[in-house]
Amino acid sequence: MSYGKDTLLKATQIIEGRRSKAQRIQLAHHMEVTDKIPEITKYEAKLAETGLAVVKAFGMGKDAQDYIRQLSEMNEALQKVIRTTLVENGYPENYLDTPYTCKKCEDTGFVGGYACECRIQILKDIAKDSLASVSPSANCTFSNFNLDFYPLPADNTTGVSPRKRMSEIFEYCKCYAEDFGTDSESLYLHGATGLGKTHLSLAIANTVAENGFRVIYDSAQNILSSLEREKFSHNNSGEREKEILDCDLLIIDDLGSEFSTQFTVAAVYNIINTRLNRSKPVIISTNLTKNELEAKYTQRVTSRIIGGYTSLLFLGKDIRQIKINL
After folding, report:
1. What are the phi and psi torsion angles at 34 (to 5°)?
2. Distance CA 190, CA 75 (A)
3. DSSP string, 59-119
4. Which of 88, 226, 300, 325 is the 20 to 30 A CA-CA neighbour of 24?
């Protein structure tokens, strides 16, 4: 599982912010308590002495075992005295503890050299927020995908029931999202407009991101525009291109809706070919037919999509129009 620099930086800033806040609160509590209960300072000084004595005792060899035990008992007794004194003066017994958000890692983000659960959750939340910033992802889940909008009678062209076909596609996409791994297959979602391709793409994105994978989702227009801006900027870092080529799952929505130029055609080929060579999954949704795709992007692009992606043909009537007429 991988995350971009921006996501990692945001996570670090959030965790550092939590730690700094907790330490400020603890300092303020300490100043308040020692001002009102001066004897606390004396107990803390004795605690510091026992702590230092324990460190020195480790150099005494096996003779230090009993001494260290005595120091530990003294340390525990002093801590108990401090807690009792706090309660007697109207404070909670843990008032001088540092109120870390995560007690497990003490707001460092790591435990024993491994990422703490709190850090993993923060990364997931940032990824989900990133999806929400470019799409209505919160409104597009598997739970609110309504198969009732698809006709039950067989389609005149294909001879297949749209509802039956979409039920199969729905289950396939749901399993795909739940079982997603970096070696998952690429998907080619195609069919007429308004049939739920974007909805299911976002439902997959939400689930995959929730499971800790790095997902980039955006329209073809936005992805290609961002690459073009980066390509022709004075300080081209290549960071956006690297994110698009390296993320765990790339979802390109509405391929073919962008204004076609020599640059966009080359960029689409590079994305598809590079990720295919690296066995990195892509989900493409488009309203274009195979012939329209080939006319827009050339046979080199189309053959890689048709030959290397799992094809899911969406059937039915424009759901947006059905909802308007309800």
Report:
1. -70, -25
2. 69
3. GGGGGHHHHHHHHHHHHHHHHHHHHHHHHHTT--TTTTS---S-TTTTSSSEETTEE-HHH
4. 88
Domain boundary residue, one of 69, 86, 115 = 115
- The candidate with the shortest Cα–Cα distance to 186, out of 251, 240, 243, is 251
Residue that the structure tokens 């291109």 belong to: 241
Closest CA relative to residue 56, chosen from 72, 68, 73, 45? 68
Bridge-based pairing state of the strands 282-286 and 186-190: parallel
With H, G, I as helix, E, B as strand and everything else as coil, classify residue 255: coil
Does an H or E element contain 217, and which?
Answer: strand 215-219
Asked, for residue 124, whether it belongs to a domain, the answer is no
Q: Enter the pTM of the model.
A: 0.74
Q: Rounded CA gap, 200 and 187, in Å?
A: 11
* Structural domain count, the chain: 2
- 10-residue mean pLDDT profile of the chain (326 residues): values are 77 95 96 92 84 66 68 84 92 94 95 92 86 71 92 86 95 96 95 93 91 89 92 80 91 92 93 95 94 91 93 88 66
Same domain, 249 and 310: yes
Report the alpha-carbon angle 259-263-269, nearest 5.
100
Cα 82 from chain centroid (whole Å): 43
